[in-house]
Amino acid sequence: MMNARRGPERGPTGRFFGPGELRLAILALIVERPGHGYEVMGRLADRFNGTYEPSAGSIYPTLQLLEDEGLVRVEQTDGRKVYHVTEDGRRAAEEQADAIERLWGRAASRGEWGMFREPEAAEIVGPALRLVKAAVKALAHAHGDPAVVERIQEVFVEARRRIEELDTRRRPWKEAP
């Protein structure tokens, strides 16, 4: 799905689902495993690592639509409506497998932005943005000089390497704090 302002890969804010995509996502989740509305809502949020929080106002009408279309059926379990996929629903999901895969790929990409919700992220985002601003400014003053472009790239590569050395998960011989 293309967005004139953001393109197909949307960032951490803004509308994520295009027409019919929320319906498809919910159907795909129910194909994976039956669940009640709140559970489906939680599983959808999990796909986004905290960068998208579905609302009951979007989930429950979509579940009702899927039921009306005969793609899911409802069973009462412990006083809750539990949604199960029907054969028509399974077939519809199989026919849309590529679209579902692209949708989950976008969700994973957007979910990568979830780390910026951590309070500690604010401590590094400002300096990182100032570094990028300085690089762009230096490039502008150099009028696109390839030597300056190369040197700026070297600085960024070196900075990334040094930061990755701090990541204890990347160093299995070190214990994480």
State the helical fraction: 55-70%
Q: How can the largest sheet be summarized?
A: 3 strands, antiparallel
Shape: elongated
Look at the structure and give the mean pLDDT: 81
Structure classification: mainly alpha
Provide the succession of SSEs: HEHHEEHHHH
Our measurement of the CA-to-CA distance between the termini, rounded to an integer number of angstroms, reads 42 Å
- Radius of gyration of CA atoms, rounded to a whole number: 22 Å
Total strands: 3
How would you characterize this protein structure?
By secondary structure, the protein is mainly alpha-helical. The chain contains 7 helices and 3 strands, in the order H-E-H-H-E-E-H-H-H-H. A 3-stranded antiparallel β-sheet has the order 1-3-2. Helix 1 (21-32) crosses helix 2 (37-47) and helix 2 crosses helix 3. It is elongated, with a radius of gyration of 22 Å. The two termini are 42 Å apart. The model is unreliable at 1-13 (pLDDT under 50).
